[in-house]
Structure formats: C-alpha cells, structure tokens
Amino acid sequence: MGDLITMDDLTNEEILEVLDNARSLLPVAKGEVYLPLLQGKVLGNLFFENSTRTRMSFETAMKRLGGEVLNLSSIGSSVAKGETLYDTMQMVDGYADIAVIRHPNQGAAQYSADAVEIPILNGGDGAGNHPTQTMLDLFTIREAHGSLEGLNVMMVGDLRYGRTTHSLSHALVRFGAKITLVSPESLRMPDEIVSDLKSHGGDVKETDEMSSSIDSADVIYMTRIQKERFPDEDEYVKVAGVYKLTEDDLSGAKAGMIVMHPLPRVNELHASVDTTKHARYFQQAFNGVPTRMALLCRSLGVEIPKKVNK
Amino acid sequence: MSEMRRVTAICNGTAIDHIPSGHALQVLKMLRLDTGRSNPISMVMNVPSGKMGRKDVLKIEDRELNQEELDRLALIAPKASVAIIRNYHVAEKRNIELGSELINIVRCSFSNCITQNSREPLPHKIKIISADPLVLRCSYCGKNQDIDQIVDFII
Ligand SMILES: Nc1ncnc2c1ncn2[C@@H]1O[C@H](COP(=O)(O)OP(=O)(O)OP(=O)(O)O)[C@@H](O)[C@H]1O
Ligand SMILES: [Mg+2]
Ligand SMILES: [Zn+2]
How far is the centre of ligand 1, averaged over its atoms, from the C-alpha of A153 (Å)? Predict the structure, then answer.
C-alpha cells in the first residue's frame, strides 16, 4: 500500500530508491522544469496542528508536479465542532486522491490510514513519528556525505517530544550509524525507542553533554526544546537554553560535518553558524520539496523518469 | 484426576488451572465475571502445584468459555490450562493462545493516543510484540503498555 506512517513502512532499498528519485526531481523542485506527473490528482493537506514547512513544501511539491491541493485547517471547520477524525477522513476519502495528516494526537495517522482507502502520509502525530521529515533529513545527509552508511550522528535537545529524532534515529540505525543522543535528563529519548534502536543493533550512546562529541561527528542534528509540549512552564524554564551551538564550538569539527535542524530554531542554534560551511538547515528545508515529490509519486504509483531534462 | 481436589467437582462448566498464584481475581475481572450476577464460581488460591510452585484454580459452573474469552485470559495467565467439563468429565481441553494482535480487548493507556476519544469508532488494537516476557504495544500510537495495569484497561 501507499501509506507512509512510520519508517518501518519503507525498506532500506525503498528509502534509497525514493532518495534517488528525489535527486532526479531537483530541477522540478527548483521550478526550472515543469513536469506534470500528478496532473489531475488532488492532495488533501490536513493540518490539525500548526505547520509552516511541512504544509508549504507538500503544497509546492504537489503543484510543481501539476497536481492540486485542498487545505483543511481545523480552525473554523467541523473539527472545531467536535467531528471525529474518522468522520473527517470519510469526507477526505471522497475529495482527495492522497492526504497528508498532521495531528496533535499520537497514532492519528495510522488511525486515518485504517479509516480510508486513499494513501495517507504521516506529517507528524503528537510526539510520535514524522517520516517525511526523516526522508528529507536522509536526503540532506546523503547529498552531503554521498552515502548513509556508518555515519557518526549527534542528536541534540528535546529527544523526548522531538518526533523528528525518533523517526530519524530508527532509520539511521538501519544504515549502521553510530548515534550520540544529547539531552537533559528530563528530555531523554523514550525508553522504548532506545531499546528498539539497541535491539536493531544500534550503536547508541546517551549523554547530557554536547561539546565532547562535536569533533568526531559527521552530522549534528539540533532540535528545539518545544515549549508547547511541556505540561507546565516551570519544567520548560529548567531546560530551555541548555544547549547553544555557536560557530566557536565548531573549530575542531570535521571539514565535511554538517549541522542540521528541522526548524524553527530559538536559541539552540546561533546565527553565527549560518555562514559556516557546516550549515545545512536551510538547504534541508528546501529538500522537503523534492523528497515529498518523490514520496507523493510513490504513494500514487506514478513512475519518475530517471533523468529529467531541462 | 490424580490431584486432590480442594473444591468439589462441577457437573458442567469450565476449569481453569495453572493460573499464576494470586492472579485468579484478575482473571475474573478480565473475563468480566466479577459482576456478582454471574454463574457460580469456585476459586482456590496459592495451592501447591507440581508444575509451578504455587497456583490458582478457578471453576466456573454452567459456562463454557469461548475463544475470545480465552484470548483475554492469555494476557494474565498465558500458561493456564482450560478444561471444559461436561457431566463431571473433562470433555475438551482448550489451548489459550496469544495471537499477533488484540482487537477490542484492551485499550491503550497513553493519554495522548487518538483512541482516547471514546467517540472514535475504529476498534482498539494492541500488538503482541513478545509473549514471554509479555510486551504489548498500541497499534496506533506505538506506545508500550504497562502489563501490571492491563486489567484496568480491558474493554
Ligand atoms: N468434574 C470436574 N469438576 C471440576 N473440575 C474438574 C472436573 N474434572 C476435572 N477437573 C479439573 O480440570 C482440570 C483438568 O483435569 P485433568 O483430569 O485433565 O487433570 P490433569 O491431568 O491435571 O490436567 P492438566 O495437565 O491440565 O493439569 C484439573 O484442574 C481438574 O481438577
Ligand atoms: Mg494438573
Ligand atoms: Zn495508543
């Protein structure tokens, strides 16, 4: 089926195939070539929670491939009147050919996939999974390092609620990455994820200290400590601002090391990093477009030409 | 019938033997037989057992447990033996088996799971990740379930 709910829905071979396709689609993503592979198709953009990048990049991806987009925002819709997700999805099943869903409740994407016929892409469910983000992260890493095999990856910040790191760590372990998880004690990666990573043979280290791992890293993946996921303000204040990556911290870093961030950032990633050769987060945000194009085509069973000519 | 019976023989019904010691009450709750209005039930707890040190035994009169009930039982007493008694004799022995997924048997305990909205109509689904030790995971949100609390979440 064409659903993408967690990274378990893709084999390593399928991941690499999608990433190859995303690379072929780069000129289309940049708007240099118009390739209407998805003409006549409609994407339902279902955002029950705020999003800038995910929603916009899906919309751009669909439109650059000649498709149409329906946007649902929960404000003002029948969702605000207490409609169940099941009922909302029955409607979407009739209006769209494929849907991406972001929802505050964990499990909402799998639930939606069970409720309808059309393919469902998980655009983030609570603190659960965010596999399309993972795919664009993998694309970014692979473009920088040429391969996904055996990299040293640091993940820093809110690893408890930060769903992007949950999906990404799963995927990287499958490619033999060595992962260093850096977080305050209260924001550690959930136990079931850490034990899953280890049971899949993952080389995983947990620490609350960032600086000593920087020089050996191939990727530093920074995340924001998300205020909105804290039950109370005091808990947030205690850990907000514990990690701040600046240009100075990178003086001993490997030449090819890249700094990533799913954005938006607050203080954890200083603007001085932006002008270094390591900064890759704005590129990463753009990479959402070709990657999501490739994923839309995959779910809709549309073949992507190996070579897209300008 | 070599062992000495602590409770009298029943004419018709179900005998559940080899329940982990101290868990008979949980089994009753799991089978929704704790209502006070069900069939006659005899229970022994913490009796010596050759196989498992100590065990609990339940005998439920005039009721043959069906497969769905046996599936529930598997969550608490995966190694129990179930005998259907007809006319004072063991008429059938049933195996309890944990399948790969529990459908509408327990609900997910995670407060932010989509299934917490009781108006959502799709069935509750819990995946069996491992039978021994028992590891259960919500098929929607992916959260592992606390096995000690599982009786509180039966449907
Ligand atoms: N008429 C009866 N009334 C109540 N319980 C009975 C009756 N006949 C058998 N049982 C119970 O049913 C279970 C199975 O009986 P069985 O005679 O096969 O014993 P067993 O050889 O010990 O079997 P197992 O290997 O399952 O322990 C035992 O717990 C036994 O006490
Ligand atoms: Mg016996
Ligand atoms: Zn759940």
Answer: 59
Q: How far is CA A94 from the centre of its chain?
A: 27
Cα B34 to ligand 1 centre (Å): 23
The answer to whether the complex's ipTM is over 0.85 is yes
Ligand 1 closest atom vs CA B15? 12
Nearest-by-Cβ selection for B140 from A110, A127, A192: A110
Which one-letter DSSP state was computed for residue B148?
A: G
- Domain B101-153 sits in CATH 2.30.30.20: yes
**Closest residue (by CA) to atom 14 of ligand 1?**
B83
Judge residue A33's burial from the number of C-beta atoms within 10 Å of its C-beta, 0-12 exposed, 13-18 middle, 19 or more buried.
middle
Q: How confident is the model at residue B3 (pLDDT cuts 50, 70, 90)?
A: low
Nearest Cα neighbor of B106 from B48, B148, B66 is B148
Strand (E) or helix (H) holding A288: helix A281-300
For chain B, positions 95-154, list CB contacts with chain A under 8 A.
108, 110, 112-117, 119-122, 137-144
Q: Which fold has domain A131-284?
A: Rossmann fold (3.40.50)
Strands (E), A39-82: 42-47, 68-73
Q: To the nearest whole percent, how much of chain B has pLDDT over 70?
A: 96
Which fold does the domain B2-94 belong to in CATH?
Alpha-Beta Plaits (3.30.70)
Q: How far is the CA of A150 from the centre of ligand 2 (A)?
A: 54
Confidence of residue B1 (pLDDT cuts 50, 70, 90): very low
Q: pLDDT tens across A255-268, in order?
A: 999 999 999 998 89
Contact yes or no for B144 and A104 at CB 8 A: no
Residue of A nearest to B144 (CA): A192
Q: Global pTM?
A: 0.84
